Amino acid sequence: MEIGQLNIERAQIKHTLKKEQRNLFIRKFLSNKLMVLGSLIIVFLLLLTIIGPLLTPYTPYEMETVNKLQGPNAEHFLGTDEYGRDLFTRIVYGAKVSMGIGLSVSIISSIIGLIIGLCSSYFRYLDGVLMRIMDGLMAFPSILLAIALMAALGPKTGNVILALTIVFTPYIARVVRSAALIIKEETYIEAMKAQGASTFRIIWRHITPNILSPMIVQATFIFADAIINEASLSFLGAGVPTPDPSWGTILYDGKMVIFNTPWMVIFSGLMIVLSVLGLNLLGDGLRDLLDPHIKGGKKKK
């Protein structure tokens, strides 16, 4: 009976601690107004991506040449492009493409960068090889490397994801390696080695959970950078192929008629600005929230 009562008390204490931690997290989240604003922007864009196609009777490829280059009106909320396609529809479907590419690049580069960073930090004989490759990729400006890769791969949505993943993986790998090198020298890691714990267990059970916070923060910034780079590639004609909608391809279509019909550039550019602003505010907020050494935006001394 005493053992059973002790287990119940331990479960109650554990439940209470989890509840307090959850409440503390919510209070810290709500106290960061910029992070809340960034989260609201991202939620709005995600809802637009999911619900937007249900709000328009058009398809992104449906052309009405008699209504081409119309300004915003009751029939076409944001006007039409040079082929008479509804601009609101193309921007909504473009959000799915642009944000889908950004999210895919962020997730894939995080997974690959996590593996490379962990292997580099734990296995010294791999460190020199892997990090020199990462340094070589980081030596090129991201957009130039992406253009070079797209020139070799060809304009295709899948190739855009592949090219940008190659571009941004080194940034994740560097962050993971730096954090893992610090964790690796902790006393409890040495104790695990002394107890005969396997390398796999030490890496995935004790090092990885402690380096996820900086990796997640970096991933949000890569999400934003990937959206910008995808738009840049598509604007240059080396990204998502036309007539597939993306914010970059809409900018590309609008550049020739910018003086007569500027709304094509204005509305698609506004979506890019909103998404990048929201992700950067969210990333800054997550950094403040997940780093216990930061208080009020400044490092504790």
- Broad structural category: mainly alpha
Whole-number mean pLDDT: 85
Shape: flat
* CA radius of gyration: 24 Å
Main sheet: strand order: 1-2
The fourth-level CATH homologous superfamily of the largest domain is MetI-like
CATH class of the largest domain: Mainly Alpha
Keywords:
301 residues, mainly alpha, MetI-like fold, 2 domains, two-stranded antiparallel sheet, 10 helices, 2 strands, disordered C terminus
What is the gist of this entry?
The protein has 301 residues and is mainly α. The protein has helices spanning 2-31, 33-51, 87-122, 124-138, 142-153, 157-184, 187-194, 199-235, 247-254, 263-290; strands spanning 294-295, 298-299. The protein has a two-stranded antiparallel sheet with strand order 1-2.
Description:
The structure is a single chain. Helix 6 runs antiparallel to helix 8. A hairpin with a 2-residue loop joins strand 1 and strand 2. The chain has a two-stranded antiparallel sheet with strand order 1-2. It is flat, with a radius of gyration of 24 Å. It is mainly alpha-helical and 301 residues long. It contains 10 helices and 2 strands.
